[in-house]
Amino acid sequence: MKIVDVTVESFRYLSNTTRDSEGHGHPGPEHEATQSLTTIITDEGVKGYCFGGIPKAVLENLVKPILIDKDPHYREQIWHALKERQRLNLATLHDKILTVVDLALWDLAGRAVGLPVHKLLGATRDRVPAYASTMCGDDLEGGLATPEDYANFAIWCVKERGYPSFKLHTWQPPYPGAPSVKRDIEACAAVREAVGPDVPLMLDPFHYYSREEAFYLARELEKLDYYWMEEPMDEHSMSSYVWLCENTLLPICGPETAEGKMFTRAEWIKAGACDLVRGGVG
After folding, report:
1. 68 close to 15: Cβ distance less than 8 angstroms
2. Residue 85: which of 65, 70, 108, 105 has the closest Cα?
3. Are 209 and 217 in contact (CB under 8 A)?
4. Share of the chain above pLDDT 90, in %
5. How far is C-alpha 111 from the geometric centre of its chain's CA atoms?
6. Nearby residues of 272 by Cβ (< 8 Å), 6 or more positions away
7. Partners of 181 in the beta sheet?
8. Which of 135, 198, 141 is nearest to 169 (CA)?
9. Ranges of the chain whose pLDDT falls below 50
10. Are 61 and 93 spatial neighbours (Cβ–Cβ below 8 Å)?
């Protein structure tokens, strides 16, 4: 089996998510949005798919020359070849493109043998727990404008939708007065009071805080028995995260946006800059 082509198609779909000037998502009126689908095609007719696009110039000049005529089962070889090509092309051949290619190759491998990817990786469970996660705070009708709005939404997610845990994304610029440690704590306290002591709760304050602010916020979340706090500070300073982890009992989740793929994650774990690491699944 050999790869004979890689294509990228764009399509329109209906979405209820809008973006503010900082790129944060908010619920909004239904509208048309654009998505892309990357397809890896083999000479045996087996295809692999992944949502996400690759710019045409990058596809033709950097990606296709590595993939065409390769055995698609040599995923590691292809990944390392793309990684090496990144060295002088990082601005265009970024990590998201490597992700799209890698996921499409895994999808292709599963389709080739008629198995879901989780079984190819070595299945251990049939179900995984999920948590409800908010968009960030807003002043939209029916949105998350107050701590009480967060509390009411948490009740709906946990008690009506059946989610076992809940994560807050609080108010961010350009929202007036954001970010605000005081307001974040008020929202976190309102949610804890609403759902009771047994529901795991988490906070993602979007990297905006200083060491002192992150430390104060962590101490307050300890009192509220929160499960973790995610990316409270800019991730360019790993030493700040080491300091925070050493000075609080609240588990710190990260990194989220730091460059360097799993290599950076390994360094953070080794340095004690985070207590747990999340991985995306798509």
Report:
1. no
2. 65
3. yes
4. 84
5. 25
6. 242, 245, 246
7. none
8. 135
9. none
10. no
